[in-house]
Specification:
The complex is a heterodimer of chains A (216) and B (459). By secondary structure, chain A is an alpha/beta fold. Chain A is built from 9 helices and 5 strands, in the order ααααβαβαβαβαβα. In chain A, strands 2-1-3-4-5 form a 5-stranded parallel beta sheet, sandwiched between helices. Chain B has a domain of 306 residues: Trimethylamine methyltransferase-like (TIM Barrel, Alpha-Beta Barrel). Chain B has a 4-stranded mixed beta sheet. Chain B has a 4-stranded mixed beta sheet with strand order 8-7-19-18. In chain B, strands 9-11-13-16 form a 4-stranded parallel beta sheet. Classes of the chains: A alpha/beta (216), B alpha/beta (459). The interface between A and B is medium-sized, with 22 and 27 residues.
C-alpha cells in the first residue's frame, strides 16, 4: 500500500502533474509517513527517472520542466515537515540563479534552473535585470553553494564581472561557487572575471555544477 | 504554403493577443504615449485595440529609400529587389584558429569584405570588437565602418551611448539636417513573449521621432518563448510587431517601419535557438506574406545555418534559407552573408561563399528574356541539323554573359586533382586572403568631415 503510494508519487512527477503531486504529498503526510521518506522514496524516484529518460533522448525539456514543477509542488507541501525533522532535505546543492542587470532575457537561465531542480538542487530563481547588490543580498540570505549568472548581450556581460566584484567587496566571494553563462560568454571570459565555472548549455551546466560541488 | 485564410487568422490572433493579453512595455515614455492615445495601461502592461493597429497600418509606408553617402548608395526597401546586409551581431569569429571573441581588427576585415562584395549592400555589424572598452566601442566601430566602406552600415542602438553615438556620427557625416531623410539602418529587438525592454522602447521612440526607419525584429523561440506550433509562433511574433508598428506611427505618423521576423525553433533538448531548420524557411515565407498583405515591408531570412564551419551543412542550410528568402520577396535581409552557429559567429570564408550564393540565386531568378535575339532562330537556321553553334557569331556575342566563378569548381576531375584537389572552404580562404590583400578603403569622405569624425571617434 505504501509502495503503491510511493509509486504514484513518482508517476506524478514523470507525468508532470503538479496538482496530483501536491495531493499525494499531503496524502503521504496524512498517512503518517516521514516527510524525508515521501521525498526520497516517492518523488525523487520520479525525478531521477525523468533525468534518465531525458539522458536517453526519450524525454525532452517540456517533460523536464513539468517534472521539476511537480517536484516543487510536492516539496512545498512537505517543507514544514522537512524543516521540523532532524535531517531536513538532502539536496544535491543549493543554488541561486539570475540574469544580470540590464538584461531581461530569462529563458536560458530558466531552463538551467529546471534542469538543476531535476538533478536534485534546491534552486532560487531571482529573475532578470538583477543588480549586483541584489545578488549579494540573496547570497547572504540563502547561503547557496552556487551562484549562477546569465547574460545574453555583450553589453550586459560586464555585469557578470561587477557581480563577482560585489561579492568580493562584501567578503562573500569565497562562500559561494560562481558559474556564468549566456550566448556571448566563453570559458575564457569566465576565467578572466574569476568565475569558478562556465557552461555552454543547460545540460553542461548541470554537469559543471555537480563538478564544482564534488558531487556525482 | 500558407493560404490567405491562414494569414487572416494569424492577424486576428495577433490582435486578440494585444487586446486580451497585452504587451509589457518597460520604457516609461513609450507607455505614456500609448496611454495618451487610448491604449489600456495597467502598470507596465498595455492592451491595444484594433483601431490603434488599423490607424498605424494606414500611415506606415509600404516602402522607403534610405539615403547613402552618395546617390548611388541610396537603397530602396520595399517593392523591389531584396536589400542584402551581411552577418549582424555575432560576438564570435570562427577562423583558421577556431572560435574566439571578435576584435576591432576583425571588424576592419569584415568591413573590407563587405566593401568588395558584389551582392551585399549594407554592412550588418558582422562581428563585435570585444577588445575595445565598452565606453569607446561604438565610436571605434563608427570610425571603422565610415572610413572602411562607402556602403551603408547597420548601427547598434541598444545602449544610451550607442544611440547617442549613432546620432552624433550621422550629424558629423551628413550635417545638422541629417534626419530629414532616412539615413540609419537600425534593428531593435523585442523580448518574447510580448515584452519590449526599456532600451528597445527608448531607441524605437527616439529614432521614430527622427523619422528614421525602425526595424523591430522578433525572435520568439518555438517551445520556449513562443508556442511550439508555427501558427502560434507567427501570432505572438505578429502581436509584438504590431506593438512596434503602433509605437512608431504614434511617435511620427508615416515613419518607415520594417516588419522583422526572425522567430524560429528552440531545441527541445537544450533550449538553444535553431536557425538552420527547414521550419524557419517556411516561417520566412509566411512572415513575408503576412507583412506584405498588410502593406508593410518585411525583414526576414538570410543565409542561416546552425553549423560551426563553412561545410556542407552550412552550404545546404544557407542556400535553402536564402533561396526561400529571395523567392518570398523579403525586402531587407540581414545575415545574407557570413553567419554561422545560428546567430552567434561570423566566418570570413562563409562570407565569400554566401556572396557567391546570393549572386547565383539572383542569376537563377532573373526573368527569362524571350525575344528574337534570344530565340536565335537565324543562328539555328544557318547552322542546320547536326551542326554546331560554337563558331556562330550569336554564341560569341552571348558567351560571356553567364556568371563565372572562381570559387565553385567547374573543372574536370583530373584538372581539379592536379591543381590540388581542394574543397570549397580552402578556395574560400584563398579568396578571403586575396580580397583583403587587394582591398583599398574608399577616399570619398570630405577631409573636413573625416577630421571631425576622427576627433569624435578616436580622441
Amino acid at each position: 500500500m505504501t509502495e503503491e503510494l510511493y509509486s504514484q508519487m513518482a508517476q506524478a512527477v514523470i507525468d508532470g502533474e503538479d496538482d496530483t503531486a501536491a495531493e499525494l504529498a499531503q496524502k503521504g503526510l496524512d498517512a503518517g509517513l516521514p516527510a524525508a521518506d515521501i521525498l526520497d522514496k516517492g518523488f525523487v524516484k520520479g525525478i531521477e527517472e525523468v533525468g534518465d529518460l531525458f539522458g536517453r533522448g526519450e524525454f525532452f525539456l517540456p517533460e523536464l520542466v513539468q517534472g521539476a514543477e511537480a517536484m516543487k509542488a510536492a516539496v512545498a507541501v512537505l517543507q514544514p515537515a522537512l524543516d521540523a525533522s532532524k535531517e531536513g532535505r538532502k539536496a544535491t546543492g543549493i543554488a541561486v540563479a539570475g540574469t544580470v542587470a540590464g538584461d531581461i532575457h530569462e529563458i536560458g537561465k530558466t531552463i538551467v534552473c529546471s534542469m538543476l531542480s531535476a538533478a536534485g538542487f534546491e534552486v532560487t530563481d531571482v529573475g532578470c535585470d538583477v543588480a549586483p547588490e541584489a545578488f549579494v543580498a540573496k547570497v547572504k540570505e540563502v547561503k547557496p553553494d552556487l551562484l549562477l549568472l546569465s547574460a545574453l548581450l555583450t553589453t550586459t556581460m560586464p555585469n557578470q564581472q561587477k557581480t563577482i566584484e560585489a561579492l568580493k567587496a562584501e567578503g562573500l566571494r569565497d562562500s559561494v561557487k560562481v558559474m556564468i553563462g549566456g550566448a556571448p560568454t566563453t570559458r575564457a571570459w569566465a576565467d578572466e572575471i574569476g568565475a569558478d565555472g562556465y557552461a555552454e548549455d543547460a545540460i553542461e551546466a548541470v554537469a559543471a555544477a555537480k563538478g564544482l560541488l564534488g558531487v556525482a | 504554403m500558407i493560404e490567405q485564410a491562414g494569414l487572416e487568422r494569424i492577424h486576428a490572433a495577433g490582435l486578440r493577443l494585444l487586446d486580451e493579453v497585452g504587451v509589457v512595455v518597460l520604457d516609461p515614455d513609450a507607455l505614456a504615449l500609448l496611454a495618451a492615445r487610448g491604449a489600456a495601461v495597467e502598470g507596465q502592461r498595455v492592451r491595444l485595440d484594433e483601431r490603434l493597429v488599423a490607424a498605424a497600418l494606414a500611415t506606415a509606408p509600404p516602402g522607403y529609400t534610405v539615403a547613402g553617402r552618395r546617390a548611388e548608395r541610396d537603397l530602396r526597401v520595399g517593392g523591389g529587389e531584396s536589400v542584402l546586409a551581411g552577418a549582424s551581431g555575432p560576438a564570435f569569429i570562427i577562423d583558421r584558429a577556431g572560435r574566439r571573441h571578435g576584435t576591432l581588427a576583425d571588424v576592419r576585415d569584415a568591413v573590407a569584405l563587405t566593401h568588395l562584395s558584389r551582392t551585399v549592400d549594407v554592412y550588418g555589424q558582422a562581428i563585435g570588437a570585444l577588445d575595445v572598452p565598452d565606453e569607446r566601442r561604438p565610436q571605434a566601430i563608427a570610425w571603422a565602418c565610415t572610413t572602411g566602406t562607402d556602403k551603408p552600415w547597420r548601427v547598434d542602438v541598444t545602449t544610451e551611448l550607442e544611440l547617442q553615438v549613432a546620432c552624433d556620427v550621422a550629424e558629423i557625416v551628413y550635417g545638422a539636417d541629417w534626419h530629414e531623410r532616412p539615413r540609419l539602418w537600425v534593428v531593435i529587438n523585442s523580448t518574447s513573449p510580448l515584452q519590449l525592454s526599456a532600451e528597445a522602447g527608448r531607441a524605437l521612440l527616439r529614432l521614430a521621432r527622427l523619422g528614421q526607419p525602425v526595424c523591430l525584429a522578433v525572435c520568439a523561440m518555438a517551445g520556449t518563448t513562443g508556442p511550439r506550433t508555427l501558427a502560434g509562433l507567427l501570432a505572438v511574433q505578429h502581436a509584438e510587431l504590431l506593438t512596434g508598428l503602433v509605437l512608431t506611427q504614434l511617435a511620427r505618423p508615416g515613419c518607415p517601419f520594417l516588419y522583422g521576423a526572425t522567430s524560429s525553433l528552440a531545441s527541445m533538448r537544450t533550449g538553444a535557438l535553431l536557425m538552420g531548420v527547414p521550419e524557419y524557411w517556411a516561417l520566412v515565407e509566411a512572415a513575408v506574406a503576412l507583412g506584405h498583405w498588410l502593406g508593410l515591408p518585411v525583414r526576414a531570412g538570410g543565409a542561416l545555418t546552425d553549423a560551426h564551419l563553412a561545410d556542407a551543412q552550412a552550404g545546404v542550410e544557407s542556400a535553402l534559407a536564402l533561396e526561400a528568402t529571395l523567392r518570398a520577396g523579403a525586402d531587407f535581409v540581414l545575415h545574407a552573408a557570413g553567419i554561422l552557429s545560428s546567430f552567434n559567429s561570423f566566418s570570413p570564408t562563409k562570407f565569400v561563399i554566401d556572396d557567391e550564393l546570393a549572386g547565383a540565386l539572383r542569376t537563377a531568378r532573373r526573368p527569362l528574356v524571350v525575344d528574337d535575339e534570344t530565340l536565335a532562330l537565324d543562328a539555328l537556321g544557318a547552322v542546320g541539323p547536326g551542326g554546331t553553334l560554337l563558331g556562330h557569331d550569336h554564341t560569341r556575342r552571348h558567351a560571356r554573359a553567364a556568371a563565372s566563378s572562381s570559387l565553385m569548381c567547374r573543372e574536370t576531375y583530373e584538372v581539379w586533382l592536379a591543381a590540388g584537389g581542394d574543397d570549397l572552404a580552402a578556395r574560400a580562404w584563398r579568396r578571403v586572403d586575396e580580397l583583403l590583400a587587394a582591398y583599398q578603403p574608399p577616399d570619398d569622405l570630405d577631409p573636413v568631415i573625416r577630421r571631425q569624425l576622427k576627433e569624435y571617434c578616436l580622441e
